[in-house]
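step: validate -> pass
step: tokenize input -> pass
step: predict -> running
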Amino acid sequence: MTQAKADLKLYSFDEFISWYPEQSEVRYELHDGVIIEMPKPKGKHSNLTGSLIEQLLIVIRQIGKGGIWTIPRESIVKPQREKSGYEPDIIVLNQETIGRESRWESESIIQNSDSVKLIVEVVSTNWRDDYYNKLRDYEEMGIEEYWIIDYAALGARKFIGNPKQPTFFVCNLVDGEYQMTSFTGNTSIVSPTFPQFNLSAQEIFNLAF
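step: predict -> pass
step: emit ->
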């Protein structure tokens, strides 16, 4: 990832939203006041993300939430810290509560945890953001469930083992803190929000290819 602005100005969230180019083909996020150009997803990353959206939509229909739990093409999540803003790889929104989002219709901004059923980040070269900053901020917001999909085994060994191996994390909010459960190989994913999601970690990783 690269810093998008050459100057040393630190941006507030609202300044970042005002700056964000309309119809931009490049994704940007705000990290502690710094506007960051996100790495352009490469083929495998895009394959996995797109295929996983299809799988999630199937499960959403199976549990009778079709049209209620939806996956938008894009959105920006505003955490509690004023100088950050993220655009998740995948976000599942709850249309029953999203009407409380004052900035959704006009700016695609999500501020309330009640609007979100799931956030997914597919790990790329900026893996520290997914494992540290976003985990901290999504937890602080009260996001119920957060998945970290490290299909290329890029994260630190303290997370994914030594030797490193592709790992799928389900971070489930319990008493205000994330409990991280890791899944590898042929172990089936266990999701509190999507109990019918019965793919294994390896089946998810294979979606990249």
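step: describe -> The chain has a mean pLDDT of 94.
step: cleanup -> pass
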